[in-house]
Specification:
Elements: H1 3-29, H2 32-58, H3 73-101, H4 109-136, H5 140-169, H6 174-201, H7 208-221, E1 225-236, E2 239-248, H8 254-271, E3 275-283, E4 292-293
Parallel strand pairs: 2-3
Antiparallel strand pairs: 1-2, 1-4
Helix pairs in contact: 1-2, 1-4, 2-3, 2-5, 2-6, 3-5, 3-6, 4-5, 5-6, 7-8
C-alpha cells in the first residue's frame, strides 16, 4: 500500500474517532453549536472514504481506454468533498435557525466542552499531516481533505468559544447564533475547495513559478537546438503534462536531435518527478522567433 493510500485510510479512522467524540459532547450538553460541529464531522468521514477510493483509482496504470492514466480521479473526489462541505453547512444553518426559534438549555457544558476540545486537538494534528503530506505527495485529494479539516478546526474553536460565552453570560441564544456563523464559514470553505478542484478538471496550467522553472530548464538544456515554442502544460493529480515544439537546425542528425530531447526530458523529470513530456521536433524554417530561446 502506498503512502498516499495509508494516509487516506488513516483519515477514515481519525474521522470516525472525532465524530464519536463530538457526538458524545452534543449528547452531554444538548448544544446546537456542538451538534453543528458533529454534523460537519459526518461529512469528514464520508469524504475520507471518497478520497481513499479516488486515490486507489488514480493509482491505476494507463490502459487502452485511459491511455493518459486515471490521475483526474482525485479531482473528482475533491469536487465531491467541496459539495459535501456545502451540504453540511446548509444542514448546520438549518439547525441554527431551529435553535434560534427555541434556544436550548445547556447541560453539563464544561464536561462536553472538554470532550469536544479533545476532538479538536486530534483534528488539528491530522489536518497538519494531511496538508503537509498531500503537498509532498502531490495529491489533490489529500490536500482538499486537509483543508476541509482545517475549516473544521477553525469552526470548532469558534463553537467552543461561543458555548463558553453562552454559559458565562446565560445568553443561550448565542449557542445557535454561533452555529449559524460556523455554517457560513464552512459554506465559504466548501466553495473554495470545489472551485480549486474544478480548475484541475478543466486542465489548468501549472503555477507561474513551476512554468518559469520549466522554461528555464528547456532554455538551459536544449543546447544544439534553436528555439522552443508553443509550450503547454497541465496537471492531473501528481502528474504534470508538458508539450512543446523544438526547432532544430536542418543539418542535425536524428540521433543528435534525440539526444537533445533526452537531455531536456531528464532535467524536467528531475524537477517534476512524475512528468509526461511530449516534444515535437521541427526544422529551422518552422521557427517562430518567439517563445523560449536556447542559451
Amino acid at each position: 500500500m502506498s503512502n498516499t493510500l495509508k494516509i487516506a485510510a488513516g483519515s477514515i479512522v481519525v474521522g470516525i474517532a472525532v465524530l464519536g467524540l463530538k457526538l458524545l459532547a452534543w449528547v452531554m450538553t444538548g448544544s446546537v453549536a456542538l451538534l453543528s460541529d458533529a454534523l460537519e464531522s459526518t461529512v469528514n468521514v464520508a469524504t475520507a472514504i471518497a478520497a481513499l477510493i479516488a486515490i486507489r483509482v488514480a493509482a491505476r496504470p494507463a490502459d487502452s481506454d485511459h491511455p493518459y492514466g486515471h490521475h483526474k480521479a482525485e479531482f473528482f473526489s475533491a469536487v465531491l468533498e467541496g459539495v459535501m462541505i456545502i451540504v453540511a453547512a446548509l444542514l448546520i444553518m438549518r439547525e441554527a435557525w431551529l435553535g434560534l426559534m427555541h434556544p436550548p438549555a445547556l447541560n453539563a457544558p464544561f464536561a462536553g466542552i472538554a470532550v469536544n476540545a479533545a476532538a479538536g486537538v486530534l483534528n488539528t494534528i491530522w489536518c497538519w499531516v494531511l496538508i503537509r503530506q498531500g503537498r509532498r505527495l502531490e495529491s489533490p485529494a489529500l490536500v482538499a481533505d486537509g483543508k476541509h479539516l482545517l475549516s473544521d478546526v477553525i469552526s470548532s474553536v469558534g463553537v467552543l468559544s461561543g458555548v463558553l460565552l453562552a454559559v458565562a453570560t446565560g445568553w443561550t441564544v448565542l449557542d445557535p447564533l454561533l452555529a449559524g456563523l460556523v455554517g457560513l464559514n464552512i459554506l465559504w470553505s466548501g466553495w473554495k475547495v470545489t472551485a480549486s478542484s474544478l480548475s484541475g478538471l478543466m486542465d489548468e496550467a501549472v503555477s507561474d513559478d513551476t512554468l518559469a522553472d520549466i522554461r528555464a530548464i528547456i532554455s538551459d538544456k536544449a543546447t544544439g537546438a534553436l528555439e522552443a515554442h508553443d509550450l503547454r502544460t497541465r496537471h492531473a493529480g501528481s502528474v504534470t503534462f508538458i508539450d512543446f515544439h523544438l526547432v532544430i537546425d536542418g543539418q542535425t542528425t536524428v540521433d543528435e536531435a534525440h539526444d537533445i530531447c533526452d537531455r531536456i526530458e531528464q532535467s524536467l523529470r528531475a524537477r517534476l518527478t512524475d512528468a509526461r513530456i511530449t516534444i515535437h521536433v521541427e526544422p529551422e524554417y518552422k521557427a517562430k522567433h518567439s517563445g523560449i530561446l536556447v542559451l
